[in-house]
Amino acid sequence: MTSRLWHFGFATLAPAALIALGSVWGGIWIFAAVIHLTAMTTVLDRLIKPDETAEASQSDTALSVVIAAAHFALLPLVIGALVNPQLGALEKIALFFAAGLWFGQVSNANAHELIHRQSRALHRLGMWSYITLLFGHHTSAHVLVHHQHVATRADPNTSRKGESLYRYMVRAWVGSFQQGYVAERDRLVRIERSAWRNPYVVYVGGAVLCLSVATLLGGWQALLAYVGLCGYAQSQLLMSDYVQHYGLLRATHANGKPEPVAAKHSWNSPHWFSSALMLNATRHSDHHAHPGRHYPALTLPKDAPMLPRPLPLMASIALIPPLWRRIMDPKVDRWRNA
After folding, report:
1. Helix axes 108-115, 59-82, angle to 10 degrees
2. Residue 114, CA distances (Å) to 42, 119, 164 in order
3. What's the whole-model pTM score?
4. What is the spatial distance between Cα 73 and Cα 328, in angstroms, rounded to a whole number?
5. For residue range 63-79, what is the model confidence (pLDDT) as tens digits?
6. 3-state SS of 309-331?
7. How far apart are CA 68 and CA 115, in angstroms?
8. Is 79 exposed, middle or buried (0-12, 13-18, 19+ CB in 10 A)?
């Protein structure tokens, strides 16, 4: 790993190691993982000057593969720990919290990176990361729907001004599942392939397989732990989308077509450590401008909207809709009138 990538590796893999140790030995390791993903991230974001540089590197692919491998190893390990009677109730709650944050913020960001890669193997690695979180349809919906219709009402993952996080999550989950399926169905018609080639067969079949394996290995308790963990991780992904696109809509031309996607249509965050934790997913404007650009090379456009606080903190604020609207609605109005 190059010197420019060390912070990505530390930010993403250190909590994975702590979660693994906590799953086996419990105690301080679990709470260290919670601290790393919350308090330490917040402190480092405050103390360290935002890093606005970018650099392309071949080593980022190796790190993405390692994170994906950690994902597949951690998921059964954590579920086993959550049904292990040797761990106390407080330890299990903390482990569930830490693991859900890691799967939802780190592994999700990594899977998102992988599904944009040209390599079929890397794309499938990202796809199976989502499938094992019971969120396989995001592979299709994100690429075929979100990137096509972002910042318009046609995109289920673009949050609207005044819309609460809770209403948004239901609308976005259902809408992306449905529209992703339609997009894949229409794609198969265009390229004249059979309907059974629809990847939704793999998404749904893979989810059923994962649910069955969890039940066979740990009974109904493991099944509940698995579904709960996946739901929590999915909520983290939806919270990120909610924050990063809140209220920013593209203008519609006289011909009914929206204006081109620009930097002003995504909220960004320059904060150093949380950006490393999420593999620069916080540099969202540049990602929409260049979906295939690897995460170390993403930049912060000078004319892009910036969140007042780090993305994870803003997602927490979104849990309180009145507070969220008081902070963000005036900022949305300023960008709409800019």
Report:
1. 140
2. 27, 9, 30
3. 0.94
4. 38
5. 999 999 999 999 999 99
6. CCHHHHHHHCCCHHHHHHHHHHH
7. 12
8. buried
